């Protein structure tokens, strides 16, 4: 999918509206029996659109204790010590390190911090447009949860986790 960013975003710094934004995660059991869909609440972040789009930046902070799926036991396990360890590491953070045009559209490179562990991640910008009160950006990517420091559950959960950030910012 080609991102339409060139003439659709007004330069400026925007604050993520946590009430209108969402972070959705999808993973599968290692044996592929059932996909697991979940959400994690956003605590905040910013999107800075530069006149030269390659100089644009973004950051986002997620609340590690708000993992929600269709299974309450799973929710407690993921927020617990073996996975996110939300009591000791209450946030999951992303900060961009570069923005570049790829073959299919714009890419946002960055660092993801989970449980105090940093890992590189690249997000594809699927939607980027100005709105009457700011901007709407949808970024997607696949995170290797083992590389991101989430090593528990290797026999239960596949390594790749698909992330969709649907962000509204003012």
Question: What would you say about this model in short?
Answer:
Belongs to the UPF0312 family. The chain has one helix at residues 72-79, and strands spanning 12-15, 22-28, 35-40, 42-49, 57-63, 91-101, 106-114, 117-131, 134-144, 160-169.
Strand order of the largest sheet: 1-4-5-6-7-8-9-10-2-3
Give the oligomer, counting copies of the same chain as homo and different chains as hetero.
single chain
Structural class: mainly beta
Which overall shape is indicated by the principal axes computed on the Cα atoms? globular
Please give the share of residues in helix.
under 10%
Return the string of H and E elements: EEEEEHEEEEE
Count of individual helical segments: 1
In whole angstroms, the N-to-C terminal distance is 25 Å
Any idea what the CATH architecture is?
A: Beta Barrel
CATH topology value: Lipocalin
The fraction of residues in strands falls at over 45%
Average of pLDDT: 92
Main sheet record? 10 strands, antiparallel
Uncertain ranges? none
**Over all CA atoms, what is the radius of gyration?**
16 Å
Kindly give the count of domains: 1
């Amino acid at each position: 999918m080609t991102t339409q960013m060139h003439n659709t975003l007004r330069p400026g710094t925007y604050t993520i509206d946590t009430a209108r934004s969402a972070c959705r995660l999808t993973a599968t059991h290692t044996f592929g029996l059932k996909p697991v869909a979940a959400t994690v609440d956003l605590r905040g972040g910013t999107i800075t659109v530069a006149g030269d789009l390659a100089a644009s930046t973004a950051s986002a902070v997620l609340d590690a204790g708000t993992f929600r799926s269709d299974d309450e036991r799973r929710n407690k396990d993921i927020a617990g010590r073996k996975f996110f360890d939300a009591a000791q590491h209450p946030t999951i953070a992303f900060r961009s390190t570069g923005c570049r045009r790829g073959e299919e559209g714009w890419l946002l490179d960055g660092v993801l911090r989970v449980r105090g562990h940093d890992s590189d991640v690249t997000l594809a910008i699927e939607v980027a447009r100005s709105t009457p009160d700011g901007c709407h950006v949808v970024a997607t990517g696949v995170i290797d949860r083992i590389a991101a420091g989430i090593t528990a559950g290797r026999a239960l959960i596949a390594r790749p986790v698909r992330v969709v950030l649907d962000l509204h910012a003012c």
